[in-house]
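Morning, I've got a small favour to ask if you have a moment. It would help a lot if you went through both lines with me. I owe you a coffee for this, so here goes:
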Amino acid sequence: MLPNILVAQLVLCNVCVVSGESGGLLNAFATVANMSVDWVGYGYAALVASGGVMGYVKAGSVPSLAAGLLFGGLAGVGAYQVSNDPRNIWVSLATSGALMGVMGKRFYSSRKFMPAGLVAGASLVMVAKLGMTFLQKPQDT
């Protein structure tokens, strides 16, 4: 409980300092309430990157490591962008769409769930999530 209080205090103090307001506590609460983190996007990025690392550890596949870290990094950048602006979905959508196509084809050819089916399914979920995010009405701020 104490770390949560300290983080809230730090965020509120930083918002008041950045905005230049001394009595802007109510404004600071509104700013904190509007912040959202794309946890699904960050989890997807971690899944893709860790899949590349596991491919290298288990099979010694350097292309798997390179592709996993590249696409995991791009998915992480996309999640960061979506966290800052929920309408900025393009990097995340391109990354998950490309992985959905490539790994979906591999899953269709091999019928092996690991790793192609898992990544294709997770990519499909990400594309659906991003599509729903894009189709939502923007919130008034």
Remarks:
- Confidence is low (pLDDT under 50) at residues 1-19, 25-34.
- The longest helix spans residues 62-84.
- The two ends are 29 Å apart (CA to CA).
- DSSP finds six helices and no strands in the chain.
